[in-house]
Design a protein that fits this description.
Number of strands: 6
Mean pLDDT: 97
Strand content: 5-15%
Radius of gyration: 15 Å
Strand order of the largest sheet: 1-3-2-4-6-5
Helix content: 40-55%
Number of helices: 9
Shape: globular
Bound molecules: uracil
Order of helices and strands: HHEEHHEHEHHEEHH
Oligomer: single chain
Low-confidence stretches: none
Length: 187
Amino acid sequence: MSKPQIPLEELRAQVAACHACPLADGRTQTVFGDGDPHARVMIIGEAPGKNEDLQGVPFVGAAGKYLDELLSIAGLARSEVFIANVLKCRPPGNRDPQAEEIQACTPFLREQTRTISPEYIVTLGNFATKFVLKTDRGITRLHGQLHQAGRFKVFPIFHPAAALYDVRKREALEEDFAKLGRMLQDA
Ligand code: URA
């Protein structure tokens, strides 16, 4: 028999109480995730930044504004998807997540994914992609192609923050979100 799903509100409370790694000491608050709990599409980013740590909501800074634009290219409103991150606490100075932090935090992401049970998981950037696809391949090689991980369709895309100052990545991101929109319509 499959494991029972943990209700999202229970998971949210577990995340808020978590002290499994030292990032807990530096946080203003945890950033659990946001959006439709029954979403067809779950978006997974890397980790909260300064604004997210202050507001407790993912992707509210510059990368978040751009993500909203990208979602609209796919024909999606932010309220229709569920957005979460690999890490639920902000790494100091927005440095990369460390392996031990990912190990400590991702049981929450795994449970979120089981509970939401989306059809598509869109992984933004290397950290989310490597975790979900259990691969060492980089995002440059994997983006824009549909993969399967268990029962989930996984579609890796560059992280929007990486594209803010790089026009070529912007083009790739916008093409990939347009492709996501077409896949959602066809399915
Ligand atoms: N970048 C991320 O990966 N996640 C956020 O929530 C904000 C910026």
